[in-house]
Amino acid sequence: MSTLVECKSLSHIYGKKKALDDINLTICSGRIVGLFGPNGSGKTTLIKILTGMIHDESGSIVICGTAVGERSKALVSYSPDRVVYNAGSKVSDLLDMYELMYEDFDKGTAEENLKKLNIEKEGYVGKLSKGNAEKVQILLTMSRKARLFILDEPFNGVDPVTKEGIIKIMLGCVPEDSSLLISTHQIGDVEQALDEAIFINEGKILFHRSVEEIRSETGRSLAETYMEEFR
Amino acid sequence: MNKRIYKLESNETGKLMLIFTSLVAVYMLLSVICTAVSNSSSTDTAFLMKTIFVFIGALIIVLTGVAMIKRLYNLLFTDEGFVRLSFPVKNHEHLNSNLKLAAARLGIMLIIFFTGLGISDSIAKERVERWGVGNLYSDIVDNYTMNGLSSPVAKTVLTIVILIIAFAVIAANIYLSFVFTLTVSSRICGKYNILQKKGVIFISGIVMYNVHLLIMDLFSRIEYSYSEWLAFGKGYDLFGPDCCLISAIDRPVINILIYGVTAVLMYRISANILDKKLDI
Question: CATH number of the domain that A190 lies in?
Fold first, then answer.
């Protein structure tokens, strides 16, 4: 296992509020990692820093040996916490855009998966249901051969069947030497797939351990541990 | 990778820009035809017609600029930014592609626009007063010859080149002022976690406009004093008949310097914010 992400003394301030406070974090390859915490705990800020959407942080952050920038962006595939595509774009336009911009994008697989999910390639994003639009976003994100996949709240407002579909796409597309970092409040839905869990609150990491360890030490499921921790 | 971002920008804006360019072309063609068939005895009608053509043609060009700025707004202030800024390119490449393609497209439109005006003018030359840049060359060369300048043709070409550069620099500066307002507003919103983004853009825009007015007023005064100095004969002692050339190009040269330097500054600051300080 090689180190994919290494953060040292990472901090970020919004105005006067510390969104992240001295974060030290290492994520190795081949792991599926859950990032959990209450609203406003700093999950999305951490993800935005990892993906280069925020630059104003202090401390160091290295992804596959490179600082966050255009090179790291070629290694990270990111899906934000809501559908971010232009409503006027066709799904086929998005496929073309990903193919043009990412060398590691597998258009064939993406098209196959779209067919399996019964999503029209020529349909407009704005006319898709919320669940289908989410699926398209996750599908495009996961159709790259990236080293690190980051999904922020992939199950926002989707029904259980769609959620199951998204989990299938998610888990079926991660190459062996890549890792998946997933931030969600619906811990029970992903618990079985996770290798590690990071609990974060008020900008600080409370703990980062393997899910097995947490279960055996506490005798509770991850969801129960979360409830216990943040109640 | 840079080429890819240009290709993407070109693909995404191509259709809209083709429509706008065709509109300008059709419109100017219509202007030429109307000028050719208009009643030569009615100067007022010809003037009104030209004013309408110039106004609507210019409006289409301005709308093209607005459409390109809107794309940059989407990149910095809407959810689309999450897609675009995830691409493995430096963030300022998005700005570069937007700027360069906007410049190329607006340039093509302006060439069509002024060519149309020029042809209309040359058709109407004998009937109504002179208009547009079509007769600019003959106006200037007549003036320089009448004032006894040596090499009037070369000096006319020099004057026209400087005028065109000044026009391009001013247009680039205006475009970059909007870009600068957007990037600085984006920085302020990110830094202080402000959600009322449109309000921040509005206030930044007003501040920018007032700074622009102050600077231009200052340089108008300098230019006025300089013109007075030339007009009261002291310039003639130094430059002879070339005083006429200097008074024609001094303002465009000052504009190139001021608008050019501020445009470069605004571009550098905007690129720096995008690369190092952005927070979407």
Answer: 3.40.50.300
Render pLDDT for A102-119 as a digit per residue (tens, 0 to 9): 999 999 989 998 988 889
A42: region left, alpha or beta (phi > 0 left; psi from -120 to 50 alpha): left
Nearest CB partner across the interface for B88, out of A54, A73, A80:
A73
| Whole-model pTM over 0.80 | yes
ipTM of this complex: 0.91
Q: Is A67 on the interface with B (CB under 8 A)?
A: no
Cross-chain residue pair B88–A100, CB shorter than 8 Å = no
| Inter-chain CB proximity B190 and A54 less than 8 Å | yes
| Annotated domain spans of chain B | 1-129, 135-280
Are A207 and A45 spatial neighbours (Cβ–Cβ below 8 Å)?
Answer: no
- The CA-based diameter of chain A, rounded to the nearest angstrom, is 51
- Full residue range of the structural domain in which residue A105 is found: 3-230
Task: Say if the Cβ atoms of B80 and A54 lie within 8 Å.
Answer: no
Between CA B105 and CA A182 the distance in angstroms is 43
Least confident of A159-168, B131-140, B212-221: B131-140
Chain segment B88-121, per-residue pLDDT in tens: 999 999 999 999 998 898 888 888 888 887 777 7
